C-alpha cells in the first residue's frame, strides 16, 4: 500500500475547488445505483463520482441502506475524495432511523415526556442517546450528526418539527439538547443544533412552503433561542438554519439567506464561531422563491459556511465562483468559511496512533469497519427503557377488559399508516401484525394516502401509526381517523386502541375512549415499540428491558385481560 498525505492546505486549492469544499451533496447510502430511492435528489455513481473527484465537493449527506452497506459506501466515497469528506446524516432518532440494522431510538419528544416527571432520568437518557448515536455513526463512517433538534415544539400542529423536538418548553429542550451534545463529545463526530432561529412554533412545512414566525425579538430570546444558547455553551459544532421568515429580524429574507440572522445575531451578537450550515436548499420554501443558482450565493453572503443539498451542485459552485470573481462575495468571506471547515474536518479525525500528531485521514488507507460497535448489548435496553418510561395507558391497567371473547369470529387488526410505502417498521413478522395474529385477529391495512373505510361488523383492534412527518403537510389529527374511531365506538366494535407516534393525536382521541376500552400510546413506531405497547395492552409484557416479551400464541379470550 502506498501511503501519502491527502489533506492539503486549502490555500493550495483553486478558487473553484475552495468553493466546492463548502458544498454538501445528497446521495444514497445504498451501494448500487439500482437501489436509489429518490432519483430526483440522489445521483447515480456516474454523476456523484465526478462531483467528488473532479469538482471536489466538501461533503455528502446519506440516506438509506443497511449499516454494513453504509460502512462500505462511506469508504468508497472517501476513497474518491482528494480532500476527505464530511459525511452527514439526519439521525435524530439514532443511526437506525436511516440505516437498517443500527439502533433506531425513540423520537426525542419521548425524553421531554419523561423530563416532566423525572428530569434527572431524562438527562441521563439524553446523554446515553447521544453517546450511542455518535459511536454507531463513527463505526459506519459518518462524522457529522445532523442532530440535535433544538426547536421548542410549542405548537402541536407543527408538521415538520413535532416529535423531533426534545420538548415543548425552552428550559426542558435546552437541558436535553446540552445533555445529548455532552454524550457525543469525545466520540469523533460533529453535532448540529437546528433549526435556527427556531422552527417550533410554525404550522407550515418548510419542505413545501415558506413559513413565517411573527414573534418579536423579546419572545425569541425568552423561548426559541434558549436551547440554541445552551447548545453553543455545550460545545455544539454547527448550527443549521431554518427556512422561515421572521419579520422582526429581517422583513424581507428568510433566515437562511439573512445577514441579520446569521452574521449579526449568530456571529457578532453571540460570538458563535462554529459552522453555520443551511437546511437543504432543495426544499420548496427556498426553491419557490429563489433560483437554484442565486440561493447558494445569498446563503454564503448571509453568513453560512456550508451549502447543503443545492438543487444543482455544479451550477451552484459555478454561481458562487462567479460571485467571488465579480466582487459580490469577497475572498476574505470565503476564506473564513474554509478555515472553520478545516477546523471541523480535523476535529472529527482520530489519530493513527496515540503517539503521533497525524490524523487517520492524512493517508490513503480506508478506516477499518467497526461493525461490533453497532447495535451493542446496551442499545435495546436503552431504547425500551425510554419507550417504557414515556408510555401512556388508558385506562389504568387494572381495568382492562377482554378485547375479543373466546371463539368470536372475524376479529380485525385494523392498521392505519400515513404511507404504507414509507413504513419500514411494518412487515408480516413485526409485532403489530404477528402478535394480533397469534391472538386470532386478521390484519387489514388502511393507507392514509388512499380511500378506505373500517368494517363496522367485527371486533376491532385499531393501531394507528401517525406522527408529524416532513413533506406530508399538516400534522393535525386526520378527520378520517377520528370519524372511524367514533364509528367503531358507536357500533361497539372497538376492543383496543394503540397510537404510535403523535402524542397530540393520542390526547385528542383518548378522550373518546369509553372506560372499558383499553388504549396505549407509544412515541416510537419501530418493532420494539409495537412489542412493548401490545404487551402492555395484553397484560403479557414483562416490562423488563433486558427480556422483551415474545408471546407466540395466546388464548384469544385472555389476550387482553388483567
Structure description:
- The chain is an alpha/beta fold and 562 residues long.
- The protein has 2 domains: 24-373, Glycoside hydrolase, family 3, N-terminal domain (TIM Barrel, Alpha-Beta Barrel), CATH 3.20.20.300; 391-558, Rossmann fold (3-Layer(aba) Sandwich), CATH 3.40.50.10870.
- It is built from 18 helices and 14 strands.
- It has helices spanning 15-20, 45-55, 67-80, 109-115, 119-139, 170-184, 217-222, 226-233, 259-269, 284-287, 294-302, 313-325, 331-347, 379-390, 431-438, 479-490, 503-510, 527-537, and strands at 23-28, 59-63, 86-89, 144-145, 192-196, 238-241, 275-277, 307-308, 392-394, 412-417, 442-447, 460-466, 494-501, 519-522.
- The strands form 3 sheets. It has a 6-stranded mixed β-sheet, sandwiched between helices. The chain has a 5-stranded parallel β-sheet with strand order 4-3-2-1-8. Strands 5-6-7 form a 3-stranded parallel β-sheet.
- Helix 6 (170-184) packs parallel to helix 8 (226-233).
- The chain starts with 14 loop residues before the first helix and ends in a 25-residue tail after the last helix.
Low-pLDDT parts are: 1-5, 350-361, 397-402, 471-477, 540-562
What characteristic shape results from the CA principal axes? globular
What is the name of the CATH architecture of the largest domain?
A: Alpha-Beta Barrel
- Main sheet attributes: strand count, strand direction, barrel closure: 6 strands, mixed
Q: How many domains?
A: 2
User: What is the average of the pLDDT values?
Assistant: 85
Kindly state the percentage of residues in helix.
25-40%
- Structural class computed from helices and strand pairing: alpha/beta
Task: Quickly name the level 1 CATH class of the largest domain.
Answer: Alpha Beta
Strand content: 5-15%
Instruction: List the strand order in the largest sheet.
Output: 9-14-13-12-10-11
How many individual β-strands?
A: 14
Count the helices. How many? 18
Distance between the termini: 66 Å
Amino acid at each position: 500500500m502506498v501511503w501519502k498525505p491527502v489533506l492539503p492546505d486549502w490555500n493550495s486549492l483553486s478558487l473553484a475547488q475552495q468553493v466546492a469544499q463548502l458544498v454538501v451533496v445528497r446521495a444514497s447510502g445504498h451501494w448500487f445505483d439500482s437501489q436509489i430511492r429518490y432519483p430526483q435528489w440522489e445521483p447515480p455513481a456516474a454523476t456523484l463520482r465526478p462531483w467528488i473527484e473532479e469538482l471536489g465537493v466538501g461533503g455528502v449527506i446519506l440516506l438509506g441502506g443497511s449499516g454494513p452497506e453504509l460502512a462500505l459506501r462511506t469508504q468508497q466515497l472517501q476513497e474518491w475524495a482528494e480532500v476527505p469528506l464530511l459525511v452527514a446524516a439526519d439521525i435524530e432518532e439514532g443511526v437506525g432511523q436511516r440505516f437498517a440494522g443500527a439502533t433506531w431510538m425513540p423520537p426525542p419528544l419521548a425524553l421531554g415526556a419523561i423530563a416532566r416527571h423525572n428530569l434527572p432520568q431524562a438527562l441521563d437518557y439524553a446523554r446515553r442517546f447521544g453517546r450511542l448515536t455518535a459511536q454507531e455513526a463513527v463505526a459506519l463512517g459518518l462524522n457529522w450528526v445532523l442532530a440535535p433538534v433544538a426547536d421548542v415544539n410549542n405548537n402541536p400542529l407543527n408538521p415538520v418539527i413535532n416529535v423531533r423536538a426534545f420538548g415543548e418548553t425552552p428550559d426542558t429542550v435546552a437541558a436535553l439538547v446540552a445533555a445529548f451534545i455532552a454524550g457525543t463529545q469525545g466520540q469523533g463526530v460533529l453535532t448540529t443544533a437546528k433549526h435556527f432561529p427556531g422552527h417550533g412554533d410554525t404550522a407550515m412545512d418548510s419542505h413545501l412552503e415558506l413559513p413565517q414566525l411573527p414573534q418579536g425579538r423579546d419572545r425569541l430570546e425568552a423561548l426559541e433561542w434558549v436551547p440554541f444558547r445552551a447548545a453553543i455553551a455545550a460545545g455544539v459544532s454547527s448550527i443549521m438554519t431554518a427556512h422561515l421568515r421572521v419579520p422582526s429580524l429581517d422583513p424581507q429574507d428568510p433566515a437562511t439567506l439573512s445577514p441579520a440572522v446569521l452574521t449579526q445575531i449568530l456571529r457578532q451578537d453571540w460570538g458563535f464561531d462554529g459552522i453555520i450550515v443551511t437546511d437543504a436548499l432543495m426544499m420548496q420554501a427556498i426553491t419557490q422563491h429563489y433560483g437554484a443558482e442565486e440561493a447558494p450565493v445569498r446563503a454564503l453572503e448571509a453568513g453560512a459556511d456550508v451549502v447543503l443539498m443545492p438543487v444543482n451542485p455544479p451550477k451552484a459552485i459555478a454561481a458562487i465562483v462567479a460571485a467571488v470573481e465579480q466582487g459580490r462575495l469577497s475572498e476574505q468571506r470565503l476564506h473564513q468559511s474554509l478555515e472553520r471547515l478545516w477546523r471541523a474536518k480535523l476535529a472529527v479525525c482520530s489519530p493513527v496512533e496515540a503517539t503521533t500528531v497525524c490524523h487517520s485521514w492524512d493517508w490513503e488507507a480506508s478506516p477499518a469497519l467497526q461493525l461490533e460497535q453497532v447495535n451493542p448489548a446496551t442499545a435495546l435496553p436503552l431504547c425500551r427503557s425510554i419507550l417504557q418510561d414515556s408510555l401512556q395507558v388508558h385506562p389504568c391497567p387494572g381495568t382492562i377488559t377482554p378485547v375479543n371473547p373466546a371463539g368470536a369470529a372475524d376479529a380485525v387488526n385494523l392498521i392505519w399508516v400515513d404511507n404504507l410505502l414509507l413504513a419500514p417498521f411494518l412487515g408480516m413478522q413485526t409485532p403489530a401484525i404477528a402478535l394480533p395474529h397469534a391472538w386470532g385477529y386478521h390484519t387489514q391495512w388502511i393507507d392514509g394516502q388512499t380511500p378506505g373505510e373500517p368494517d363496522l361488523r367485527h371486533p376491532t383492534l385499531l393501531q394507528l401509526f401517525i406522527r408529524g412527518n416532513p413533506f406530508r403537510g399538516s400534522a393535525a389529527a386526520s378527520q378520517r381517523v377520528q370519524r372511524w374511531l367514533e364509528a367503531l365506538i358507536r357500533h361497539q366494535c372497538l376492543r383496543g386502541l394503540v397510537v404510535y407516534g403523535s402524542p397530540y393525536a393520542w390526547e385528542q382521541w383518548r378522550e373518546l375512549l369509553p372506560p372499558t376500552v383499553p388504549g396505549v400510546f407509544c412515541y416510537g413506531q419501530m418493532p420494539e415499540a409495537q412489542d412493548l405497547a401490545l404487551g402492555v395492552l395484553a397484560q403479557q409484557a414483562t416490562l423488563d428491558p433486558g427480556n422483551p416479551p415474545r408471546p407466540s400464541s395466546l388464548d384469544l379470550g385472555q389476550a387482553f385481560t388483567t
